[in-house]
Amino acid sequence: MYWPRKFEAVDKLHAAGITPADCYFIKDHERLDILIRLCAPFIRPYVRSGELIFIFPYHRAMQPAPLSGYAGVCMTHREKICVIGLSTDTLAGKWGSDYAVSVLLHELCHMRFDDHDQNFIAQYNDLTIRFNQTTGRHIKTQCDISAYRNSFTPYGG
Ligand SMILES: [Zn+2]
Question: If you measure from the C-alpha of residue 95 to the centroid of ligand 1, how many angstroms do you get, rounded to a whole number?
Fold first, then answer.
């Protein structure tokens, strides 16, 4: 199974007041599936190393503040073990299909760097360049932090 520790992660999220399992709509999971497949070369190493155990969709309106405002989240619930959440608005392409990819790449970078510092930006740009080379798409490499005000990590990012 691709996410062997999914249920453990869901329990932790519930304990934190986050309800990923509120997404009953199959279309949200299908959209997440498509995005994960698209970004698989970049996600797979984190999964294989055991650092990333779960990616979930969430409805922003059903989350407690401040999570309700965010397009994506990356949370560490144990040392070096992370879960990533993507809002259903992001997955639905509310801000464009490129934005959904960039949010996922952004959250992957938060697995290494909490803050939006130079290390973070360098990794984001590196991932984005490799993504564009792999897929032929043209995601912007510039990491404009103001564009990510809606994306956060509750543990300092
Ligand atoms: Zn961020």
Answer: 17
Terminal C-alpha separation, the chain: 30
**Residue 152 Cα, ligand 1 centroid: separation in angstroms?**
4
Model confidence at 63, pLDDT cuts 50, 70, 90, reads: confident
User: Residue 156: inside a domain, yes or no?
Assistant: no
> In which domain, by residue range, is 47 found?
6-144
* DSSP-derived pairing of the beta strands 52-58 and 72-78: unpaired
Say if residues 106 and 146 touch (Cβ distance below 8 Å): no
In a domain, 127, yes or no: yes
Cα–ligand 1 centroid distance for 113 (angstroms):
9
pLDDT per position as a tens digit, 87-132: 999 999 988 889 999 999 999 999 998 888 889 999 999 999 999 9
Residue 35 lies in a domain: yes
Flag whether 149 is in a domain. Answer: no
